[in-house]
Write a structure and sequence with these properties.
- It is a single chain.
- This protein is mainly alpha-helical.
- It has 2 domains: 173 residues, no CATH class; 76 residues, no CATH class.
- It is built from 10 helices and 2 strands, in the order ααααββαααααα.
- It is globular, with a radius of gyration of 24 Å.
- The N and C termini lie far apart (56 Å).
Length: 287
Amino acid sequence: MTTLNDNNPRLSPRSDSLVSTGSTSGESGVITLLDRLNPVARLLLAMLLAAPALMTLDWVSASIMLGLELIIFTIAGSGLAGMFRRLFPIAIVAAIASVSMALYGRPGGHVFASWWLITISQRSLLLALAVFLRILALALAAITLLGRVDPTLMADGLAQIVRLPARFVLGTLAGVRLTGLLANDWRSLALARRARGLGDSGAVRRWASMAFALLVSALRRASTLATAMEVRGFTTDNARRRTWARSSRLSWADAVGLVITLAVDTASILAAVWAGTFWLIWAGAPS
């Protein structure tokens, strides 16, 4: 598939290895075991890892899931420091959600404190812990598996393996490739207004005018991109018989990743059942 960005890292001398792995290498330039997974397989694994956390609300399964993810991702080449750094802002959000669950969750067991609508009980604290761990487990799987996937390779996999419509895939890829330009446009607008003496007062009015200017710029760029894609053959008729410059295939590494993911899901659910904390979210909380 013809890339929409000339500054493609896969045109470097390391292109062969990057095409076979399915994602760009990490910050250190070393290709990890996770990079050998097909982008479509990484998306599937992230969805499978999220399944137990979305099925049951208990701290045992969430803690087992989070612990196994940390161990497996570390062995696969993701550094602990990098994972903790990416999880830090999400941990703040998870802490806020868990506090609200601890204060206003369904009471049960021993009541530690109660005042008006606030009831801190044994059950609400366990639910708060479960919410905190679930958010971290879901975020860690999504960030680690999907954080550094090349959008072009993901589009190749979605079109060739999942068989999504090529026109939809290519249009989405074009939009993703141009998303990073919005931040540069916003920065340029701010600098231009400051150079003209318009950036020191009226924060709300300045933000509204810059947002409108950015919207106009984005619409103009989208129209230009649509015209360019039509001229280069990205039409509905051509999309039905499109060929691809790079083939996207599943490998033995994807099969190993699937087996490990299913083992992690099974271990977390069985641990919750053994501990007596497992309960389906849609079935209601146990008494």
